[in-house]
Known about the structure:
By secondary structure, the chain is an alpha/beta fold. It contains 5 helices and 6 strands; from the N terminus they run βαβαβαβαβαβ.
Amino acid sequence: MKVFSATLATETNTFSPIPTGLDSFRQGNWFPAGAHPPEMTLVSGPLFAARQRAQSLGLSLAEGLVAAAQPSGRVTRSAYETLRDQVLADLDAAGPVGIVLLGLHGAMAADGYDDCEGDLLSRVRQRVGPEVVIGATLDPHCHLSERMVGSANLLIC
């Protein structure tokens, strides 16, 4: 069985006038698909755990984008759509998978998207279908939405 893992995370402070653009992610934690270092980084816990478990269980692991930015204002629409679409392209490139594991924050908002995690999870569900297990890690003070719950099998704060 193949497992796909990726991370897209930031904590949006909607009161902040400082937008979060692509450079905010590139200056934070940015590792294109398959380029994450062998050691765990600040935001790569899900990927690191997937590496360990896949190896011990004999599973195949496809590593997608790992991108995280420091807390700031709303993510620009362009940045969010670019990052989301890259995660989805990485998932498509992985081929058929049995499990999708995403490292999310749970409080990302972008211009035009008040529920980025719900948007991403629902798009992943549309791609992989109802039989694939989708799990995500979230920050304990995430903004849990019905769309997130309806799109994932497992959400862990």
